[in-house]
Amino acid sequence: MNLFIYDKTFEGLLTAVFDAYFRKTFPDMLLSEGDVLPLFYDEAFTVHTDEEKSGRVWRGLQKKLSVSALSSIIWCWLSELPEVDILLFRYIRKAIDAPRSIETNFGDPDVLELAKIWKKVDWERLRMLQFIRFQKAADGTFFAAFEPR
Prior knowledge:
- By secondary structure, the chain is mostly helical.
- The chain has five helices and five strands.
- The chain has a three-stranded parallel β-sheet with strand order 2-1-3, with helices on one face.
- Helix 1 (10-23) crosses helix 2.
């Protein structure tokens, strides 16, 4: 089992994708820097976030995917669900390796799961827009107290 340890940022995830292709080894699990390592693993590689590497991966994704698919990647990242990082890693890898766009291939379990997460986040966004009411504070700023689901 190969492990990649990164800083749990979106740029760190894109750097992990770049490093995986550079090393020609792909992780079975992505962990943050403070997580406990599993009992059995073959190799643990620490990914150091690099803006240039992550930018290269993002530009490559811009050539392969539509704007809506790119925004769904970001929205799914913002969901902060457990193990969404390895799901996004597999999705990005499939998007890079595929000869044509995979964003409507709902027969693939990773594409389907990404679409489900995107729908949940979009529904939460709509719910916030519908039901949040802003109030003016004493210093003139507006705020809204809410708790996402």
